[in-house]
Write a structure and sequence with these properties.
The chain has 368 residues and is α/β, with parallel strands linked by helices. The protein has 10 helices and 12 strands. β5 and β6 form a beta hairpin. 49% of the residues are buried.
Length: 368
């Protein structure tokens, strides 16, 4: 999905004051090991060969910032109109591009900081669509993504790997099927818990698979298993944050769960259970929670659940959650070409601050 973010939901400032709830004030002076950290965030990249060829522009820009301690890609490593990889289908379908994922993987390995990537809909969910040249069974495409980008469960990508907690290794024994979700990871840094969830666009993979890939039973099972695993992984992240007296929680997903264009076509309702779960957990946590997503391609920030009567508040019918902030990162085919420099200082009441960093002076020629 590539849509515009509702302009009225954008905040003018790139910094939101997120105050801790009084119920947690007893921990406010617990700053052992806490220090400012910087994360580079981007997504919906690279969308075409030109962007892939000019990947060093983005990589060098991020690598030049010595404060960046981690890189987060929030999904979609090629355009929705591009052929999928079909790497696990031999011989490959004629319209597929079986080398694309490997080339993106190579670029991820050029980042100095550890790289965390969470899959988007274009690289697996939507591969049944004719606009993606009907080049892949979604489940086979997801298996291909896992086999390449998550070949080392519990390790990041990037030039300097770091350990993370993977759901493949830290799943609830009562739910053994959760072990397949190697892409769901968690880590802790400077009194902040970070977690990624496989939450793709296309209404959480409920838009029916089409053509020769139509398989309602398999699709229903995929959605049910993944969504349940996401719930449990998100609960685990907040439980860890509570146990370790974390100052904040940061969540990375691909889907824009408030996308106005998807709302207009009634394609957001299958995110409602997840948003309601997030609302409950964030409200109980009481401290700053930041949700990072891509999908709709236009940078914006808001507090989508702060006012249940607002345009974003009425979509998923939750209680007021003023401590949840959301940032949608700029897509790679939109000007200006930029990445999000997110600073997290757990010692301050304003835990999160951010700025967009341009990495190309001539976006039409080399960055789109």
């Amino acid at each position: 999905m590539k849509k515009l973010l509702l302009s009225t939901a954008l905040l003018a400032a790139g910094c939101v004051s997120l105050m801790s709830a009084s119920a947690h004030d007893r921990d406010d002076n617990d700053f052992d090991g806490a220090k400012p950290i910087t994360i580079a965030v981007f997504g919906d990249w690279p969308y075409n060969q030109n962007l892939l060829d000019n990947a060093p522009l983005l990589i060098n820009s991020i690598n030049a910032d010595s404060t960046v301690s981690r890189v987060l890609h929030v999904g979609d490593i090629h355009a929705g109109s591009a052929a999928c990889t079909s790497a696990d289908i031999l011989p490959p379908i004629a319209s597929s591009n079986p080398g694309w994922n490997q080339k993106v993987y190579y670029q991820f390995q050029q980042f100095n900081a550890p790289v965390v990537y969470t899959p988007g809909d274009n690289e697996w969910v939507d591969c049944h669509k004719s606009k993606e040249k009907s080049s892949g069974d979604p489940l086979k495409e997801l298996a291909s993504v896992r086999s390449l980008f998550f070949a080392k469960p519990g390790q990041t990508l990037g030039m300097h790997e770091k350990p993370v907690m993977s759901q493949a290794q830290h799943f609830d024994a009562a739910f053994p099927a959760d072990a397949k979700f190697v892409e769901n990871v968690m880590w802790e840094d400077s009194k902040v818990v970070f977690v990624t969830l496989n939450v793709p666009g296309s209404n959480n993979d409920t838009s029916p698979w089409s053509g020769v890939f139509s398989n309602p039973a398999a699709q229903d099972q995929e959605v049910a298993e993944r969504t349940a695993a996401d719930f449990r992984w998100l609960e685990s992240a907040f439980a860890r944050a509570e146990k370790h007296h974390a100052r904040a929680v940061v969540i990375g997903i691909q889907a824009d769960m408030w996308d106005p264009e998807a709302l207009a076509s009634n394609e957001l309702y299958n995110y409602t259970p997840l948003v309601q779960k997030l609302a409950d957990l964030a409200q109980a946590f009481g401290r700053p929670v930041l949700l990072l997503n891509g999908d709709s391609h236009v940078y914006g920030s808001d507090q989508p659940l702060a006012d249940p009567a607002s345009a974003t508040g009425v979509i998923h019918h939750t209680q007021a959650v003023p401590n949840l902030t959301r940032i949608t990162v700029q897509g790679s085919t939109n000007a200006p070409a930029e990445w999000l420099r997110l600073t997290i200082d757990p010692r301050k009441p304003q835990v999160f601050s951010w700025v967009n960093v341009p990495y190309c002076k001539d976006p039409l020629a080399s960055c789109q």
